[in-house]
Amino acid sequence: MVNSNKSNHTKTKPFTKTQPNRNKGGGRGTGGGAPYKKPAHGKAAFVKSKEAQRHERAKKFQERQALRAQKQKELEEERAKAKKEKEEKIKQYKKKRLEKTKAISKRTQRGQPLMKDRMQLLLKQIQEMKKNG
Questions:
Q1: Where is the composition biased (Basic and acidic residues) (predicted)?
Q2: Does residue 106 contact residue 117 with C-beta atoms inside 8 Å?
Q3: Which residues, including other chains, have CB under 8 Å from residue 25's CB and lie 6 or more apart?
Q4: Measuring CA to CA, which of 18, 30, 54, 112 is 20 to 30 A from 5?
């Protein structure tokens, strides 16, 4: 008896040369990388040990954390400064407003408004306009 499996094996091949090789190539969109190349003669590839890589990654992580903390601190300082300036402006505005209302609300014994204080207030406003404008 002749072994029929070996003689009929040529009918179906698992891989033929007409099928494209999808693992090769390095063009855009192909999904495959360039095939492995051996380094040139006399130039061995530099491979770091796992401990060195781990140490380097930890160092980079610490640097990023320090930079992030520094940025956060600067941002907080900037916000605190802006808040303080805003509060100071509000304080000055309230003080100015209080002066104005006091000057306008002053009256004589008979209930007439005091023109002297009103004129002083107007003069102050005109001087500020000249100074700012």
A1: 48-90
A2: yes
A3: 32
A4: 18
